[in-house]
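Re: the 201-residue chain
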Amino acid sequence: MKALLVYLNTYCNLPNQKVIELLGFLSDEKIKMCAGTVGNTVKSFSKKSTSIREDLKKQILKEPTINEDETPISVNGKIMSTIGVFTNLISFLDAFENRTLESFEEMGILNKYIGTVCHDHNNIHRSFIQSQQAECNFHILRYCKAEYEVHKREVIKEFMNYLLELRDTVEKYRLQGKERFEKEEYEKAKEKYLSILEKMV
């Protein structure tokens, strides 16, 4: 029951009261508890899972490439920030008062990581000089779509189409078991990417 409470509240993002209502509904109102029980159970799990969380961080730090994103989240009616770090196998999320450099450092991953971090162009990443920075193409496409809807510049559409073309190529190579572009192909892709960018300025 405790594991289910934690799962519904933290993984499924159900507020405390909704967790209580759902369990009551599923048990024909045989399971009754107060909102504080949910909060206390999650807090207890957090303390007991400290060593597991540290092990997950160590695994993430070994990866050559990781993804990072952050988003606002409501915690008991208060807007806070959730910072997430993701690999192919691990999703590690932490909630903080706000999205500051101190929050990223407190999380204890990005300030220690030395590989490549793919993110949404958050300037905080410039503080982590020990890692390589890569901007998420999906975020770039989102920005371009908004710009194109306003300005209708064909070069923006051209850039979006090229990003989608690169995505399809990467996916094709992944299915073929290839891990990277050949050097000549990479240089050609980079040259075209930069040439389109120059036309957008």
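The mean pLDDT is 92.
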